[in-house]
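Student: Send me a single protein entry containing the residue sequence and its fold in token form, directly below this note:

Tutor:
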Amino acid sequence: MWRSYTRCTDGVIFVVDSCKEERLEEAKLELLKIYKSQGPIHTPILVLANKQDLPLALDVSKIELLLGMKELGPGAAWHIQPTCGVTGEGLDEGIEKLHQLILQRRKQGKGPATKSGMSIQPTGNTKSKAVRKVQRSNSHHF
């Protein structure tokens, strides 16, 4: 069913709750379904790791591991962005990164990214730009 939602799509935004480790397995399965439903054409994926302002929030590297982002393969274009939906922190940076991934895919002249076409790793693993940690708050939203 995901194919009908992702056909002719330039990018996918996938939001996860950084405080609910037990739900990340389910999120991983859905993310893999979305990715595999695209066949050989894969659009860039932006994962918004929401609720990063809360004390129990998992860090980006743990979320990357639990979502199995490396399982998407070397041709996958993706980025995990720490965010806080309440304050909006990280949202602009995440959308900008998704925009860059889309432009890079188009610049390669391949249309949608293919498995052998791109190898983009999350900003958290590169030295070109530091990921700014979302400021913790004392609020506890559920």
Observations:
- Residues 12 and 45 are 5 Å apart (CA to CA).
- The beta strands are 12-17, 41-42, 45-50, 78-82, 113-114.
- The radius of gyration is 15 Å.
- The chain has one domain: 2-125.
